[in-house]
Amino acid sequence: MTHGRHQGPHIFRLSSSVGACGTNNPDEVKAIQHLVKNAGYGLTTGRSLAVNGHCDTATIEAIRWYQRLLNMSPNGLIQPTDTWFMQALDKATSPHFRPKHSGGPLAVRRGQLTFDAEGVDYITAVAPFRQRRYPNFSRILQWPPTNSSGVTLGRGYDMGNRSAGEIFNTLRQAGIEEYKAVICSKAAHIKGHQAGQFVKVYGPLVGEITHQQQIRLFELAYQVKVNEARNLYKRVSHRLPDAPEWEQLDQKIQDVIIDIFYQGVHNARALFQAAIDGRAALITHIKNSSIYMSFENHRHRIRYLQ
Questions:
Q1: Which of 32, 64, 93 is the last residue of a domain?
Q2: Residues in Cβ contact with 140 at an 8 Å cutoff, skipping those fewer than 6 apart
Q3: Which of 218, 222, 282 minimizes the C-alpha distance to 252?
């Protein structure tokens, strides 16, 4: 079955400069004011911006605000070559456009248990931020409403305990656009209701990532958890009788242990002993833990092991 190409709308381009000491063609000034206003500037800053074609102080300050957000020099001037600036505003004001990911993959090479538990997907008909809330849709910025959770993107990439540099580099490795990575990097170490506010304000600017970007981001983050689980197992297992190497553990047991690392390990020695004893022992260990069982309804670890 063939799929036709879906062309996006034309991104507005300046023919002359707008802003401080710019040419300030009234029609282009008005277009910039319209883009900035619709990109949520008023909601974010509490400031009003008239759409009148006059490049006043309020317009220049609005330009500077978005330049700072995008790590650009805040000189208050937009040149025709500043396509990155225009692209970011266009994505925020016209999020009804999406590439058609009707055949988008939802399968990963490793960690399917965790991938499935960390979010859901659906075919985008209208913008996620302009429609009735769809819980746990993962290809946009989200915030699980708990004080310990940070801004999250994709399947479980929580930015609450990450540095700005780590976020930016990981998102770029996942193929996510640079301006989106810049915005997301500002969510470093933000948690709780502050994270929820970040999603509300900056979510429309970031918009929706593709299925392939989501998979790549998950694979990068999942490998970190694999390394954490393997390293802790090596430190603990040498004190456990008849403990095999990590790589010799049943693959589904490895998957469940890694999945547990996404919520936090409690009593690592007992967890690893159960893993060594086999699937039935690990199921019993999970059932006997009120903490692990609190996640069972949506993690489905027991069913996976059976």
A1: 93
A2: 128, 129, 153, 203, 206, 207, 208, 209
A3: 282
* 166 domain-assigned: yes
If one counts the domains in the chain, the total is 3
Instruction: Please indicate, yes or no, if residue 36 is contained in any of the structural domains.
Output: yes
Q: Rounded to whole angstroms, how far apart are CA atoms 302 and 306? A: 6
Six-digit token string for 69: 């957000």
Model pTM? Answer: 0.78
User: Can you tell me the mean pLDDT for 41-67?
Assistant: 90
Give percent helix, percent strand, percent coil of the chain, each to the nearest 5: 50, 5, 45
| pLDDT tens track for 237-281 | 999 988 999 999 999 999 999 999 998 899 999 999 999 999 999
Ordered DSSP codes for 132-159:
S--TTB-SS-B--SSTT-B-EETTTEE-
DSSP 18: E
Cα(261)–Cα(229) distance, rounded to whole angstroms?
A: 7
Domain check: are 123 and 193 in the same one? yes
Task: Name the domain boundary from 177, 212, 247.
Answer: 212
Check if the beta carbon of residue 261 is closer than 8 Å to that of residue 271.
no
Q: What is the mean pLDDT of residues 132-143?
A: 76
Q: Which of 69, 71, 86 is nearest to 18 (CA)?
A: 86
77 in helix, strand or coil? strand
Contact 22, 78 (CB under 8 A): yes
Provide the domain limits for residue 233: 222-305
Q: Which residues contact 235 (CB under 8 A, 6 or more apart)?
A: none
CA-based angle 142:143:144, to the nearest 5? 125
